[in-house]
Amino acid sequence: MMSKGKILVVDDNSGIRAALKILLPKYFNAVELLASPAAIHACLRDFRPDVVLLDMNFETDTNTGNEGLFWLSEIKRISSQTEVVLFTAYADIALAVEGMKRGAFDFIVKPWDNEKLVSVLQAACDKVVQKSGKTGKTVAKETESSAVAKMYWGEGSVMSGIRRTVEKIAPTEASVLITGENGTGKDVLAAEIHRLSDRGLKPMVCVDAGAITETLFESELFGHVKGAFTDAYADHVGKMEQANGSTLFLDEIGNIPLHLQAKLLRVLQNRSVTKVGDTHPVPVDIRLICATNKNLEEMVRNGTFREDLYYRINTIRLELPPLRERQDEILPLAKLFIARYAEKYHRPVTGVTGAAEKLLVSSRWNGNIRELQNGIEKAVILADGELLDVEDFHLSSSPASESEASQGEETLEMVEERAIRAAMSRFNGNLTHVAKSLNVSRPTLYAKLKKYNI
């Protein structure tokens, strides 16, 4: 039965295009084929495809698969309603998985099975139709539900104690400092405190303090006026002012340089900000939540963190234990992630086998909840059956970067990765702007994205 969908195929292999030119018109009412991604922009405008079947490698690419990720981002940026199915060789499955995390509908491995290819493309077309037919109320509900990850408390005594404390302090204006290893869910806990507060109806403003360069710190946090410095072409409202009447979440506060800590302290004391290039202070009413994986007390003793700032942000302190100390939460969290990603990636996965359960519980999880979540996501994407088994998880013993992170020490690579991730988020995956902001070439950025699995 023919679908009403419109399919755009982008693949530089003439044999593949010839085969799909014969196959796809039997099932879809319009099919366009491109040999190069260079014409994608024009085709999105003129042909308006429902689904793009996108090859991940082209002849001009110097970094295998990364050009496909770039064009995926471009397609979603230009036409967010258009679904993308990635066409990839077996060796590039890891990149295809990353592509799905960035918004691809699914991926097909070459050589392909005709029935599966058509089925996936039809499912993608159906999703486009469903999205276009949704009411505003439905869309709003989905957006609200997916905006913030829900806090899972578990049944352990430590987390139960933290929960009781959160319920007491959330309605107050007390500043909160959340500590714990990387990946323990400090940002999720901050969002939960905000949700339970009197400010919860307004969005919480989040700042990764460690990812902001020193030269842009004041501008990003406090704002600037037009002409304050080169490239200041218009007034900019800083994060502090954006959070007025709401909550400001400063993540990685231990990474702020000492001389900038003084400026932050002054704003917190005065509860007003002065934009860069301006002389008029603007009052701000914020509730402050900070987080760090560093030992701030030791930093105070070493003179690398201001003692007065430490006491200003540390009215209430909450320390999240690592996942290896919360083993009762591992399987419930795994089930939550399985349900989430099975729905997101339309996979039939419903749980894990008994052997996989034992593996998950016995693993050390140096990367904590974030590592568990990423492992479940990848396993669900690649799964064929309903239950995930041991071989679906590729658990490393103890990565050096995570081990160092758990001790609050950072390598240059960790700083670099965080900066790249922050830039990708800031520019919504636009690699041209990301590369420019990081002052690196496009090929170098491709290599870094592959290195850090971003």
Automatic annotation (TrEMBL):
Keyword DNA-binding: no
Pfam families: AAA_lid_14 (PF25601), HTH_8 (PF02954), Response_reg (PF00072), Sigma54_activat (PF00158)
Matching Gene3D superfamilies: 1.10.8.60, 3.40.50.2300, Homeodomain-like, P-loop containing nucleotide triphosphate hydrolases
Residue ranges of every copy of the Sigma-54 factor interaction domain listed in the record: 152-381
Post-translational modification 4-aspartylphosphate, affected residues: D55
Keyword terms of this UniProt record: ATP-binding, Nucleotide-binding, Phosphoprotein, Transcription, Transcription regulation
InterPro entries named in the record: AAA+_ATPase (IPR003593), AAA_lid_NorR (IPR058031), CheY-like_superfamily (IPR011006), Homeodomain-like_sf (IPR009057), HTH_Fis (IPR002197), P-loop_NTPase (IPR027417), Sig_transdc_resp-reg_receiver (IPR001789), Sigma_54_int (IPR002078)
GO molecular function, one term: ATP binding
Top-rank taxon, per record: Bacteria
Response regulatory domain segment(s): 6-125
PROSITE patterns xrefs: RESPONSE_REGULATORY, SIGMA54_INTERACT_4
Single GO BP term: regulation of DNA-templated transcription
Keyword DNA damage found: no
Name of the protein in its database record: Sigma-54 interaction domain protein
Species name: Phocaeicola coprophilus DSM 18228 = JCM 13818
